[in-house]
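@channel anyone free to eyeball this complex?
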Amino acid sequence: MKTDKKYILAIDQGTTSSRAILFDKKGQIKTIGQHEHRQIFPKAGWVEHDPQEIWRNVRKSVADAFSDVEVNHHDVAAVGITNQRETAVVWDKNTGKPIYNAIVWQDTRTQAICDELAGDDGYDKYHDRVGLSLNTYFAGPKVKWILDNVEGAREKADNGDLLFGTTDTWVLWNLTGGTKGGVHVTDVTNASRTMLMNLRTLEWEEDIAKDFGIPMSMLPEIKSSAEVYGHGDARGFLRGTPIAGILGDQQAATFGQACFESGQSKNTYGTGNFMLMNTGKEPVFSDNGLLTTVAYKIGEADTVYALEGSIAVSGSLIQWLRDNLELISDANETEALATSVEDSGGTYFVPAFSGLFAPYWRPDARGVLVGMTRYVKKAHIVRAALEATAFQTREVIDAMNADSDVDLTELRVDGGMTANEFLMQFQADLLQVPVIRPKVVETTALGAAYAAGIAVGFWDGEQDVVDNWQEDKRWTPKLDVDEVERQYRLWKKAVQRTLDWVDEDTKG
Ligand code: ADP
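replying in thread with the prediction:
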């Protein structure tokens, strides 16, 4: 089905804001509407969003995008949704109102629930089915917390009045009519972050849902990442427009970066780092601290899987240098400072501020800055902070190579930190493979747009993504291998210094 419509609209429901981006046939951005929402911190370790505010912001962002370039739904062939993953919303299907704020992926309140579910079997008890170990990061424990703690929730859930969704599902349900016929659906990538979906069958695991105390009636229907789920509600800006693509944000970036071959990887450098490697049509279960996840499934085509390495602190270390130490006033200053010195002066900075994520998963670790001497200046510390992101990425890639038997040949990158040329060069040196940044760095929204566009025939398939993907800049390794390995060995020594710090005498 060919169409004369000019655009695909991507709705990117992110952790800090919601955005609406119009893409043309070439995958170029026409305009962006964006609205930030509040970060709600009721207690230490708790992070919430107001789902109603998010839905309002999605509508405002779409309205801004449309009015900016004077288009309307007649010009839009389809809508794709991408979203912050794992963030859980529970709402009443009769009123359309959430019964509690959305519990955000970073929230750690469910530690006790995870401990209890693990029991004597351990945190890996569901791993061979869902690809994940019990952890506060995932959506399932958050839903259990809401049902256990919100008054009357359990009863309503048992009566079939409550619905659960990650924010893709929340936005889709509202876009397609809400209480008046809203579609209750999620895609395989988002479902793979709940701990409730079997990675091979792509169906909910009833007995795991039972362990969590979540009635099956609350769970959305799982569909592929590219098919028509429903149409924009008659009362809205998107009336009659097919909603035809859903991908979790990191999977969307993988798709937008055209990582379609087994072994191809992308790394997103934002607040934290998220690296995904396409492992092809079979899920690979990690022995090295990585998550197994669905990368995408386009309509009826085979499911494609990925290994994922999540790093908690990367860009946020630069924010910390700016806001807490006041060493810099803007992240952009770090490049000139880092290159004003020859090396990090022997310092290594391991930002294990809230423990270490992949590949260590050590909640008992805390940050260290080691190798300090009187020689060390501000510039060395800033350089060590930037290098920390590259070292952490190297550790994740080593784990991926070990798990997958397919060695990385190049790395596609995106995200805010990729503006830093020093970091990108150091990354290429450390990995000893080229690091490549595309022209369109909004890869997350782009991936969701492609999924929707392919579903409605606006694009023919993945080959269009490959054809439209354009390289902006490439960094090739320059540093001597012996020097790389010397520094990497010292980094690993520094990591050892972070471990086993938290004990009964430490606070926070
Ligand atoms: P997110 O999507 O997670 O909000 P972005 O992709 O927008 O993040 O990236 C923002 C992060 O990148 C911030 O943490 C910031 O400190 C970091 N950052 C931005 N510009 C630079 C730079 N030139 N050098 C190093 N870090 C940078």
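from a first look: Residues 16, 270-271, 315-316, 318-319, 331-332, 334-335, 415-417, 419-420 surround adenosine-5'-diphosphate (CB under 6 Å).
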